[in-house]
């Protein structure tokens, strides 16, 4: 098998597994803060053992001060992203939360333009407009008949949480691009350690109160959806052209939507499907810089 085929297989497997994250979060039946804490704690233990076996812990201790500070900052942001995303899943459902979360490529472009004065292309605004239309379809905002009753406020909070999570993840991505490319495992380990420390004081579900069933779901989220998935992605993505990687990364929301429909009997409507494809097309257009010349 060629390196590129190995990369494709790794990303496909990782993104498909990641699509079951929402299921595990809901089945754990705990607050977003608790789920995020145990995800960080268990993932940190698993990744720490993996890094020790590979001899990477020594490199962690030798990181330059600036790199370590940026990694810690990304850890705080990643923790906030996880908590908000889990809250979005709890309120809006797996499908809607996952689709809305995938506006992060646009947020990353806009934040980069503001922070680093990067030039935006005129076509970027067209892609952004298409993404907004897609979100309107995917979230059901355009379905006026469903606005009656008290459900819309809860959905609004969930959608806002997903957008906020996407914003924080965009900041994490921007920071990661300015860190050494070989430090993916170390970065994730630092993020999980930060999460364990930051969330511990706010923990309402102590280890003594966690049921055996909850430990199973927490362990799956920490070891599989964080440890194993991140390791697979760090090994696979460098082997792929950016265009191939950008397309394959959208297997995550596809997998999440299928899981939501199959497990919770929440079939996605045709309007939501149309919205998802609008977001997908706009995200690929932004990521791969389709069309037009740069403008101020």
From TrEMBL:
Gene Ontology, cellular component aspect: membrane
Transmembrane segments: 7-28, 34-53, 65-86, 92-116, 123-141, 153-172, 184-203, 215-233, 240-264, 270-290
Keywords carried by this UniProt record: Membrane, Transmembrane, Transmembrane helix
Annotated EamA domain residues: 7-138, 157-286
Name of the protein this chain belongs to: DMT family transporter
Tagged with keyword Secreted: no
Cross-referenced Pfam families: EamA
SUPFAM superfamilies per UniProt: Multidrug resistance efflux transporter EmrE (SSF103481)
InterPro entries attached to this UniProt entry: EamA_dom (IPR000620), EmrE-like (IPR037185)
Top-level taxon in the UniProt lineage: Bacteria
